[in-house]
Design a protein that fits this description.
The chain is built from no helices and 29 strands. About 30% of the residues are buried.
């Protein structure tokens, strides 16, 4: 019986405390529990391997150990003349020769299948456990794994395979025979259609470090193998690709599938940017989040023909980008698909104090809302009297609903006594120097922002 040497690349852990990044192991029958043929007490012929989805990758014969066999069988895991090691999990494991140094390069390789091909560009975590058998007289490094397509034929020889492993352990020889040693690697798939793999020593003996552990001959490094896993390490975040300006996006430090790490910056709700997440294991996740520019507008109210109107005024000419308008008066939807609202059409909904809201939906499906408050009193009407006695009734000339007007006040002789642009509610019977005018009738002229001129008489009475 002869076996060979293996190489594996990354870090060795005797006791595993590795974070699980992906829940799905792609290796079929990963702990060798499913059986497709009779278990034998001794060696297996090439092509007669009994474990489902596992086989030899060359003419070298690998071995299947099972606790279900009689403990007198050579292939029983606790046979102290050969394996002498309990399975790490379940009842079965596999054995293979990593180095056989008896004037020829003899190797054995374990071949397994994946449930799906590796995805190009994705990162995978590769893990399997090995243990030096009691039968071995030497320990080695160079235990590796090479991904292949499952249509790759069996290699018709027992020499080191003419392929390079994708990952390989090249540290000190693995001498532990009393416990399982975990070998773990990370691998980024760079070619398509890789849906199977081979585990073994892909190097010649003079390229392999080995350590003699007993004086038995021939010199053979015979390794046990259990619990093989290949898991995708993609980092998963539920992040949008596009958001409206001003929308906040939480960049969490733990991904949806449990990967911890940090972002290269905080989220900026005003500018398109690429964000990079670096996991504690050094994996990267990148995401560009495009920001749709904010549609800036304001609500302008004015009176026209003594009717109160509210209009949407766009800061930049983006009116053509708007696909929907929704007007609300005191929380009730009253109009849509119009840039303006005439309040007189909804006089039954008015209260003493009223709230108008406009929500616009632009071509990017971004929603923005503006609001304006107004009083029902003196709504687009000009009172007949000003009585600044602080009783809360007609204390000033209230033109607030007109939205800022030019106002000129004349006395009965036609002289201007008060004049102001952008007037709202400032006149309480004063001259421009703030001295009081006497009681009497005064003539007003109002020009609104639409160029409409309104005039009439108003009585000042203290």
């Amino acid at each position: 019986m002869i076996k060979m040497l293996k190489n594996i690349i990354f870090v060795i852990f005797c006791f595993s405390s590795i974070q699980s990044i992906s829940q799905n192991n792609l290796v079929l029958n990963p702990s060798f529990e499913e059986v497709s043929g009779p278990l034998k007490c001794y060696l297996y012929d090439v092509g007669k391997f009994p474990l489902t989805n596992w086989s030899s990758a060359s003419e070298g014969s690998i071995d299947a150990f099972s606790m279900k066999l009689s403990n007198k069988c050579v292939m029983h895991p606790l046979n102290d003349a050969f394996a002498d090691q309990k399975p790490r999990t379940g009842a079965n494991y596999v054995g293979f020769t990593s180095v056989y140094n008896d004037e020829k390069e003899y190797r054995e390789y374990v071949r397994g299948n994946l449930s799906e091909p590796l995805e190009v560009g994705s990162t995978y975590k590769i893990r399997f456990y090995v243990c030096l058998s009691a039968f071995a007289s030497a320990a080695t490094n160079n235990i590796g794994l090479a991904f292949i397509n499952n249509k790759t034929p069996i290699f018709p020889h027992v020499d080191p395979l003419p392929i390079k492993p994708h990952v390989n352990y090249s540290g000190k020889p693995i001498t532990q025979a009393d416990k399982w040693t975990l070998l773990t690697f990370e691998f980024v798939a760079t070619e398509p259609n890789l849906n199977a793999f081979i585990i073994g020593n892909f190097f010649y003996t003079n390229e392999t470090d080995f350590k003699i552990v007993s004086d038995k001959l021939p010199v053979e490094a015979y390794m046990l193998l259990d619990d093989v896993s290949v898991t995708k390490m993609d980092i998963v975040f539920d992040l949008p690709s596009e958001v409206c300006e001003g929308t906040n996006v939480d960049l969490l430090n733990i991904s949806k599938n449990g990967v911890s790490g940090t972002w290269n910056s905080e989220f900026n709700p005003t500018a398109t940017k690429t964000y990079i997440f670096t996991s504690t294991d050094g994996l990267l996740f990148t995401k560009e989040i495009k920001i749709f520019p904010k549609t800036e507008f304001e609500l302008v109210h004015f009176c026209e023909n003594y009717k109160f109107n509210v209009d949407a005024k766009f800061i930049k000419d983006k009116k053509s980008n708007i696909k929907n308008y929704q007007w609300k008066l005191n929380g009730k939807l009253v109009s849509s698909n119009s840039t303006s609202l005439e309040i007189s059409n909804f006089s039954d909904n008015l209260k003493d104090s009223n709230l108008i809201e406009l929500t616009i939906i632009d071509s990017n499906n971004c929603e923005y809302t503006k609001s304006v408050l107004f009083k029902k009193a003196n709504l687009c009407t000009i009172q007949k009297e000003v009585s600044p006695n602080l009783d809360g009734i007609n204390d000033y000339l209230d033109l607030e609903s007109f939205g800022g007007v030019q106002l000129i006040i004349y006395n009965r002789f036609g002289n201007v006594v008060y004049s102001i642009d952008n007037y709202f509610n400032e006149w309480k019977g004063q001259l421009e120097d703030n001295s009081k005018l006497p009681n009497g009738d005064y003539y007003y002229q109002v020009e609104n922002k639409r160029g409409e001129i309104l005039n009439g008489w108003i009585q000042l009475l203290y």
